[in-house]
Amino acid sequence: MRNPQDIKHISAALLQGQTAEIHAGDKILYLDPKKYILGVGCKKNILPVHMRTALDAFLKRHGLQPSCILALATIDRKAEEAAIQAACRDLHVPLYVFTAEELMALPGRYSASEFVRKTIGTDNVCERSSVLAAGAVRAGIFPPETAVCIGKEASEAIFTSARANDLVITKETFQGITFALAAVRKQ
Prior knowledge:
Layout (H helix, E strand, L loop, with lengths): L6 H9 L7 E2 L2 E2 L7 E7 L5 H14 L7 E7 L6 H10 L3 E4 L1 H6 L8 H7 L5 H13 L17 H6 L5 E8 L2 E7 L4
Parallel strand pairs: 3-4, 4-5
Antiparallel strand pairs: 1-2, 3-7, 6-7
């Protein structure tokens, strides 16, 4: 929901006998479907405020609201990064994490970085993790509220359900942070 602060105004209008419409007076309730997985990669020790600034810029550039993000996804080595954890808390979303081997096993063409491959064992984190997480959602595999490395327990269902064409925004870089966006589409 994009504007939860307006719920009380809409509820009050309904209690006063107004019709059940999306707006009450000058207040409008926006409901944004949570349908995107945000893949995130970053340098070590990025500040949470820097992550939030980059995230806001990314969303604004693409005309998206934070409320449309269903989950974040990254590599297991970044799961404890304070900036990524803060982004999950800010957005009220879980975090999917995968190993480098799982990310590399994902078929398809993705933006590749030889430096990233040599450093962490996969050529791309943000695109591959967002697509794998979209596959996990489609397969009905959801992480708990805190980060979990689902890949280690994942069945072939995730890889079968993950599709490279789920990637709707390819890798974009914001001073040490990379984002990509995958859509969770029905089968």
